[in-house]
Specification:
heterodimer; A: 425 residues; alpha/beta; D-Maltodextrin-Binding Protein, domain 2; five-stranded mixed beta sheet; four-stranded mixed beta sheet; 19 helices; globular; B: 291 residues; MetI-like fold; 13 helices
């Protein structure tokens, strides 16, 4: 083989490939369940047809870590595709601080786009970074409590308990009675495995004054009486009151909790709103027996829900920013939001969809949800939130598993996170 | 310029494609990772050369040490088990058994299944509420109630070791079986004539002859276990309480969080350990002269 000939040939090809005129095409990166991707596929087709903009879906996996990796790498390499993508609410801090997200304010000001259709608390706490509006919600999640209406009625419980002491008493009583027929029965399932969902659940338990992830002066504050009480309660639900199964802290994520509840083996379930549609599906054993309530709080405190959900942002490296903005508006339009909601049971980001008669007829629980959303709390919008959460998950899981007592778990987590924060100053 | 004649050059043409491949896909990434590990390469901070800054932070990072200790302990337990079981299976499959071809194919199945999928299968087996393991022990009356297999540190560790051994012992079997087939039949026959028993033949004749193959298997398994990731990612994701986080998983979490410098430093240290171990094995076994 003659190398002297091969090299120029190779260079010529490389050059030709680099210079080939490329047609501008909008690339929208999104992942999720196959049904969700199919729905997006039809949204993007309609968009292309109506607006005359060539657009394509970049299909991503279901797993959210893998979706993140799939967007993170092109952005880090400053590649122009994908132009527009969906982000989990917890990534926005990192993406924005890295300077990857286009500021939407100029577009909004230029066109007088109405932000009043969206929840202000969500735009402020999740989508605004350093004064720039870097993302917009596409659908919203917040933790809710599912309960078995039929069982509460059967045992004469008139109202879903709002505080933990009452909740535990009711749960223990019904569990004992139900166990006679169903030895697998547990009163309450939630997310306790070592992953992000554990932090979401924890923040909902930490309703007392001074609870949650405290930040001041570049230091983190975790070891507070409120947090100790929250982690203590989570542990006690499993080990002392025994109303939550022992595998809560090993393998219970959203789907594990949903399946447990849905098979009729639980009275209460903490989960995101997505579970509603599945609980009410034709083949669900608990169909028509489920209700939605707010998550209980400590006595004298009010309920807290962690805010979740997916947000849409435009890449700063995109070569089709105005087209991307058109798509963003299209995805957030009333028509698309309603379509996605009706097809997938998503909780729309727009308030006006919640009063749509067609949507309400299909999802009567939306009335209760819109109230939950207006009070839902975001996780801290730190650029290095993932790393903070990772350490916290580890120690929290250990405390919930009764391997470490809450005080020393939070003490160690604080120390480790503070050392890590030093690195990012 | 060269002392090699034209003819002596020829082999290099043949290995050139391989060399290019290795340089592009192995050497280059290693050098790149090494370089990144010397930088503060965090997506949300300005990039800066910090020399050994990441490493000095790592040495003080309790989470890293924990993951390193876990990884080494995992190797110490899993690799000997894999070697033992793999060799035993190879010895069995080397014998004249009925349906030998079928059995050989069966043994290879776990190895042919992608790790993530086999880990998912094990997760279903260990599941607390509907897993096979709990079904068996409760129905056989071995335990009063279901056991939370992945709930304790020891349980999760054992579960990972079992899943990994199940998956990789066949790899050892494959290598050792190939080694066994290369052992001349006459030697064993001769030993038999000398009235050596089965154990004597195996330990005195066969084993010394397949030692190089065993060492290769050991080397592969050790290095492979050092970067264990997929089984843990699926099975426990590092839980409970971070007790089963391997070093690769630890690095991955930093990559995901946008801290490429720190993640690379973990990878480089892992590479250094793997490289050191390889050198040690080669030295101890006088690898070069025997194969």
């Amino acid at each position: 083989m003659n190398l002297k000939l091969l090299l120029p040939l190779f260079l010529a090809f490389a050059l030709a490939a680099g210079c080939a005129p490329e047609k501008k095409e909008l690339v929208f990166a999104v992942g999720g369940a196959p049904s969700e991707l199919d729905e997006w596929e039809s949204v993007i087709e309609d968009f292309s047809r109506e607006k005359g903009i060539k657009a394509r879906l970049l299909r991503q996996p279901t797993d959210s870590d893998q979706r993140r990796q799939g967007i993170l790498i092109p952005l880090k390499a400053r590649v122009r595709n994908p132009d527009v993508f969906l982000m989990d609410i917890a990534w926005i801090g990192q993406f924005a601080a890295s300077g990857w997200l286009e500021d939407l304010n100029p577009y909004i000001n230029k066109e007088g786009y109405d932000l009043g259709k969206f929840w202000k608390n969500i735009l402020d706490s999740a989508d605004t970074f350093g004064g720039e509006l870097v993302a917009m919600p596409v659908y919203i999640d917040a933790g809710v409590l599912y309960y078995r209406r039929d069982l509460l009625e059967k045992y004469g419980v008139k109202k879903v308990p709002e505080h933990w002491d009452e909740f535990i008493a009711v749960a223990a009583r019904i569990q004992e009675k139900e166990r006679a027929q169903n030895p697998k029965f547990f009163a309450f399932v939630w997310q306790g495995a070592q992953y992000e969902g554990l932090v979401c659940d924890f923040l909902e338990f930490a309703t007392m004054e001074g609870g949650g992830i405290g930040l001041s002066g570049g230091k983190i504050k975790l070891d507070t009486p409120a947090n100790r009480a929250a982690a203590g309660l989570m542990r006690d639900l499993i080990f002392k009151h025994k109303i939550s199964p022992p595998n809560v802290f090993t393998d219970m994520k959203e789907e594990e909790a949903r399946l447990f509840f849905q098979s009729g083996n639980a009275l209460f379930e903490r989960n995101w709103p997505y579970a509603w549609g599945l609980h009410q599906a034709g083949d669900s054993p608990v169909k028509g027996k489920v209700g939605i309530a707010r998550i209980p709080a400590f006595p004298g405190r009010s309920s807290v829900s962690t805010l979740g959900g997916w947000h849409i942002g435009i890449s700063r490296f995109s070569d089709a920013k105005s087209e991307a903005w058109e798509f963003l508006k299209y995805a957030l339009s009333r028509g698309t939001q309603k379509k996605l909601s009706l097809a997938l049971g998503w909780n729309p980001a727009r308030k006006d969809v919640y009063s749509d008669p067609e949507v309400l007829a299909k999802y009567p629980h939306f009335r209760a949800l819109s109230e939950v959303f207006s009070g839902a709390k975001s996780r801290p919008q730190l650029p290095y939130y993932t790393q903070v959460s990772d350490v916290l998950q580890r120690y929290l899981n250990s405390a919930v598993a009764a391997k470490t007592d809450p005080a020393s778990a939070f003490g160690s987590a604080e120390k480790e996170i503070n050392a890590m924060m030093e690195r990012y100053k | 310029m060269s002392v090699l004649s034209k003819k002596e050059y020829r082999p290099y043409y043949f290995i050139a494609p391989l060399l290019v491949f290795i340089c592009l896909f192995i050497l280059l990434p290693i050098v790149g990772t090494l370089f990144t590990s010397l930088m503060r390469d965090v997506t949300f901070l300005p990039q800066k050369f910090i020399f050994l800054g990441n490493y000095s932070d790592l040495l003080r990072d309790e989470g890293f040490w924990r993951s390193m200790r876990f990884t080494l302990f995992f190797i110490a337990v899993a690799v000997p088990l894999e070697m033992l079981l793999g060799t035993a299976f190879a010895a069995l499959l080397d014998m004249e058994l009925p349906m030998r071809g079928f059995l050989r194919a069966c043994v290879l199945i776990p190895w042919a299944i992608p790790s993530a999928i086999s880990a998912k299968i094990w997760q279903l087996i260990y599941n607390y509420s509907y897993g096979l393991a709990n079904f068996l022990i409760t129905h056989l009356g071995l335990s009063q109630g279901p056991v939370n297999w992945l709930g304790s540190e020891g349980g999760a560790f054992a579960a990972i070791v079992i899943a990994d051994v199940w998956k990789t012992a066949p790899f050892v079997t494959l290598l050792v079986l190939a080694g066994l087939q290369a052992v001349p039949h006459d030697l064993r026959l001769q030993a038999k004539i000398d009235r050596a028993n089965f154990a004597q033949i195996f330990f005195r004749v066969t084993l010394p002859l397949i030692k190089p193959v065993l060492l290769v298997a050991l080397l592969f398994r050790t290095i492979d276990s050092l970067r264990i990731f997929d089984v843990i990612y699926v099975l426990t994701n590092g839980g409970p309480g971070g007790s089963t986080a391997s070093a690769s998983l630890y690095a991955y979490k930093y990559f995901l969080g946008g801290d490429f410098g720190y993640g690379s430093a973990v990878s480089v240290l892992l590479f250094a350990v793997a490289f050191g171990m390889s050198c040690l094995y080669v030295k101890v076994s006088k690898f070069e002269s025997e194969i």
